[in-house]
Write a structure and sequence with these properties.
Layout lengths: L1 E6 L4 H11 L5 E7 L20 H7 L12 E7 L7 H5 L5 E5 H4 L2 H10 L2 H6 L1 E6 L17 E5 L14 H12 L4 E5 L7 H7 L3 E4 L1 H4 L4 H9 L3
């Protein structure tokens, strides 16, 4: 079971501080990027009332610096944005291990499949591509795209882009349906994950637990990560 802390950064300093909390504890952490268009929330590198992107973001994509502590930890980018496909090349410059698109934001299924097939093979070899699906979306809508991506991320909350939301139990059935049809598919669960529901998620077939407030709201992150890892 992979435990992946989820960071919803208010700004660069918040991002840096939260990465520091999990550095050396987990190999991968997720950065939630929200543009205020696809989802209501806004996170780094976008800022409320500021038309320009964050200075650190611009320096990173220009290869003048890297993400905080990039030497010690890998990142997956959860792109809760309206232009993830159009700006894919820009997001790859952040140096992620994984990039996650959202089914509800990519538009036409065939066009997205064509986009996936057109990604440079070097990029596909170095960056894993995931596709997230909301609890409100009929899970069968993702079936035609499963073979085009490396993993699927099932959202465990109804209102994505915010942490601390109530767990949506419909995600359990979505995981089961995916595992029944695609037995070797890697499935992440993001949103509402805690120690009370983690065992049910693992039993349903989840391979990765993406956890935000249940980790960062505790005084003992190391202990919390170990507790999640011990679930089977």
């Amino acid at each position: 079971m992979d435990i992946i802390p989820a960071i919803l950064p208010k700004n660069y300093e918040d991002l840096k501080n939260k990465i520091a909390l999990v550095r050396g504890i987990v190999p991968v952490t997720q950065i939630d990027i929200c543009d205020g268009i696809f989802v209501k929330n806004i996170s780094w590198p976008f800022e409320v009332g500021v038309p320009e992107l964050d200075e650190h973001f611009r320096r990173i994509i220009n290869e003048q610096e890297g993400l905080p502590f990039w030497e010690d930890i890998d990142f997956e980018l959860d792109l809760m944005v309206s232009d993830a496909v159009e700006n894919f090349d820009i997001y790859t410059k952040l140096g992620p291990k994984r990039i996650i698109f959202h089914l509800e934001a990519v538009g036409n299924v065939e066009e997205f499949k064509n986009f996936m097939e057109g990604i440079d093979m070097y990029v596909r070899d170095s960056i894993q591509i995931g596709l997230a699906v909301n609890a409100d979306t009929e899970i069968s809508k993702i079936f035609p795209l499963v073979n085009s991506v490396d993993f699927v991320q099932c959202m465990g909350i109804s209102e994505i882009g915010f942490q601390g939301q109530e767990f949506d139990e419909r995600v359990l059935e979505n995981i089961k349906k995916l595992k029944e049809k695609f037995s070797i598919l890697i499935i992440s669960v993001d949103g509402g994950v805690n120690l009370e529901n983690a065992e049910s998620l693992v039993s349903a077939g989840a391979n990765r637990l993406v956890i935000g407030s249940a980790l960062f709201n505790t005084d003992d992150i190391i202990g919390a990560v170990e507790s999640f890892k011990n679930i089977n």
